[in-house]
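Subject — a protein and its fold

Tokens — whole-number codes for backbone shape
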Amino acid sequence: EQDLGMRFLVQLRQDLRTHLRNVDFDRINQNHSVSVSVSQQHVLMLRQIEQDLKSLMSTWFSSGNLELRRITYEHTPAAIIEKIAKKEAVHPFRSLADVRTRLNSNNGRRCFAFFHPSLPDEPLVFVHVALMPHIPATMSEIDQFASSDGNPEVATFYSITSTQPGLSGVDLGHFLIQRVVQVLRVEFPHLQVFTTLSPLPRFRSWLVEKLQMYQQQQQRQRQQQQSSNFTTTQNDNERPKFADPTLLTQSEEVLLSSAFKCDYRDVKEKLLELLETQHGWDNEELTEALRPVLMRLAARYLLREKHRGRPLDGVAKFHIRNGAEMYRLNYLADTSRTGLHNSAAGIMVNYRYLLDKMDENHVKYELHGRIVAQPGITQWLQNDEVD
């Protein structure tokens, strides 16, 4: 009964969050029937229930109530392995052999998951770790160098997945990393370097949106030239989005015009086409020409593009809030289909956890919004983009 009850409440909060995201307030406000106030009260009531459930779950799923288990191919029940394989969100498993490699108990890989006593067969959040001789710059390095010699220099978190949307906002990932660090330091007392190799999940979509603004602005300008009464054809409720003049510098446009073999005025359109179609990353000359441009834009996206004083990138927000520092950007780090789709040129970033600096970094971020970034990130920014 306790098991079913907890499952029900987690699912209930997931359903509430889905419903509230889909509420069309404009439609409610435009409906002049007597049920308007009732509909608004209904939404407010559901929001309060959702927040109450979140508060309760933050207590029920606190660190002291969670059980940490190592997941191995040899010893973990098949039903749990199947759930982890299906729910892996960052680097999907490619085959059964890939499952065996990542979950093998005798190599330099580790997988840990949190479980709750009321949900004993449900991994709530899990993390994959590679024990390495150095901080990896690519996913292929993890495949190549994950050490089994018992003397690793670096522990790299390369994938963390939350499996329960109903527990969104409950800080399971933060607790998981803390506990895994403790476990690894017991197994490897000399281990001091903890890093990630993390994706930039929305970098490509952010850049596509910026480039689309240029495209729309050019279309408006052409329409203005073609029609003297252009302004009368505009929707008064539609406010045009203006392109960012700092997205590409003039020198970058000249550089890319040579790589794309086009006029410099068409560079943004060509870059947009590349990002939307994903055709062209196998062109070595083009990808190398794009390296300094995309790395600068990635650094800007991570450090300068913010919402309410916090990074747009959810992965960055998670690790910085946990006390990590931005260590290094890596070009063509994940050339899989998923990696290229999510982040232009498969760019990934290392976040580094310095155990004696984590609390200080956390306070700087929470109180002042400050992000600690090393030259591996800031070197790509232009002078006027650096604090």
